[in-house]
Write a structure and sequence with these properties.
Blueprint (H helix, E strand, L loop, with lengths): L4 H7 L8 H4 L12 H6 L1 H20 L1 H11 L5 H14 L8 H11 L18 H8 L2 H7 L1
Helix pairs in contact: 4-9, 5-6
């Protein structure tokens, strides 16, 4: 289960059999995808979108009251304890720079191959384009956020 559902399950008395994070298993929880033609035709839009994600991560990691308020808004009925646990866990695993993972794409393709056999023949490294995030990182944008 993903966060915060694992905390609801624990509270209900269920126990975890496997914790993927502790085993080092990378699993596709969330991702952002775009068609290659969008990257080519609208690179400014893609960069602005990624900067928004970076700023969202920054706000989450540095403004706990606001982050908890947003979690509360979307996790209706969650107790303060579950909100706090979700925040602490997520803050700990959330990278400041959202680099795409070829390994996560490989896992996703493997999962898709059950329904779409051609996914097995797809090279994950051809799907991931790190250039936009790399450019944002090299520009100093992320460093500047955390220096405030």
């Amino acid at each position: 289960m993903s966060m915060p559902f694992v905390f609801f399950a624990r509270k209900a008395g269920l126990r975890e059999l496997v914790i993927f994070d502790k085993l080092g298993i990378e699993y596709p929880y969330t991702s952002v995808t775009a068609m290659r033609q969008t990257l080519v035709k609208n690179p400014e839009l893609v960069e602005k979108f990624l900067k928004c994600i970076v700023e969202g991560i920054y706000l989450f990691k540095t403004n706990k009251p606001k982050a908890i308020a947003v979690l509360k808004q979307y996790q209706k009925g969650a107790s303060d304890e579950i909100l706090e646990n979700t925040y602490q866990y997520t803050r700990g695993v959330l990278d400041e720079t959202p680099h795409a993972s070829v390994q996560v794409v490989k896992v996703a393709l493997e999962m898709l191959s059950a329904q779409y056999p051609q996914a097995k023949q797809t090279d994950a490294s051809l799907i991931v384009d790190p250039s936009f995030v790399n450019r944002i990182e090299q520009s100093g944008f992320i460093r500047a956020l955390y220096k405030k």
